[in-house]
């Protein structure tokens, strides 16, 4: 923190759903005025796309990595129950988001004193309720808590989390890459060998002017000279997800994925007749759109593939999986024909979903 800081312990509290540039700027202002700063997030219930674990990851990536003097906590009822049990304090559930300000402020005072054992000297907010909340915290703590209001008129960073939730793509400029990555719609391509997935991935990424994620399993297979064992499949799925998440930070309005852990699960079953539970769990990963490529083109043997009969077997398996996805309410698009026809089909589905913006 800054030498000669005005306050010993500062506090910033909010839903951070999502965490945006305005929140980050508020935290930087608070950090510059405090020896220590606690940034506290809770939301009951969690808002879409902003669960507790996700908010904690955003706070770590955007706040604490830049300043180790900041303590960040994202809390939910499970975490609060655990902390209350550890402290021997009767648990109180988090107040609902729509509860009155007074309810939230009393709960915050109780949480700070009884559960977190933190006594702030100053509360930093960009909200009109800041002074009232500071008074409530002062009453609970039995000592002054100063209200420091920062850019209440939102002139420095003219955005709100509500506006971002309504249309993340339109407001992505206000999101750090680590946060945007969780909102970018991801399009995954599925299909048997020699069904045009990679060609479509390149063409679709070009049409959408965005990033695409190649198939890591193929890369590893070639590096290993065509030798993979069962344990490699789990690593392949994990690395595919890591690469996908990294690419999402650079993506524009969509991210195109040449494959997913579902494909890796298929190969585990086809090659070894089984799949570990961890791989099966990864294969449950969902996307904004699942695109199944029909095997309606001549089979091309490139030295890494089996044969057309195996491709047909794979396609039948994907048909079953995609039917299950649709039954669960997930978007599935079946494409066939030329590359141009396939690209047009995907773009039409994205537009119909409201995900066709560039």
Q: Can you describe this structure?
A:
By secondary structure, the chain is of the alpha/beta class. Helix content is 46%, strand content 14%. The protein has helices spanning 21-32, 52-64, 77-87, 101-116, 130-141, 161-166, 177-180, 197-208, 216-223, 230-248, 261-272, 277-282, 308-327, 339-353; strands at residues 7-14, 34-42, 70-75, 122-125, 146-149, 186-190, 211-213, 255-257, 289-293, 332-335. The strands form two sheets. The chain has a five-stranded parallel beta sheet with strand order 3-2-1-4-5, with helices on both faces. A five-stranded parallel beta sheet has the order 7-8-6-9-10, with helices on both faces. α4 runs parallel beside α5 (130-141), α8 crosses α14 and α10 (230-248) runs antiparallel to α11 (261-272). The chain is elongated and about 75 Å long.
Tell me the layout of helices and strands.
Blueprint: E1 7-14, H1 21-32, E2 34-42, H2 52-64, E3 70-75, H3 77-87, H4 101-116, E4 122-125, H5 130-141, E5 146-149, H6 161-166, H7 177-180, E6 186-190, H8 197-208, E7 211-213, H9 216-223, H10 230-248, E8 255-257, H11 261-272, H12 277-282, E9 289-293, H13 308-327, E10 332-335, H14 339-353
Parallel strand pairs: 1-2, 1-4, 2-3, 4-5, 6-8, 6-9, 7-8, 9-10
Helix pairs in contact: 4-5, 8-14, 10-11
Brief synopsis:
With 358 residues, this protein is of the alpha/beta class. Helices cover 46% and strands 14% of the residues. Helix 13 (308-327) links the parallel strand 9 and strand 10.
Structural class: alpha/beta
Give start-end ranges of low-pLDDT stretches. none
Q: How far do the termini sit from each other?
A: 40 Å
Shape: elongated
Number of contiguous helices = 14
Content of β-strand: 5-15%
Strands of the largest sheet, in order across it? 3-2-1-4-5
Report helical residue fraction: 40-55%
What are the secondary-structure elements, in order, as H or E? EHEHEHHEHEHHEHEHHEHHEHEH
Number of strands: 10
From the alpha-carbon coordinates, what is the Rg to the nearest angstrom? 25 Å
Sheet with most strands = 5 strands, parallel
Mean pLDDT: 92
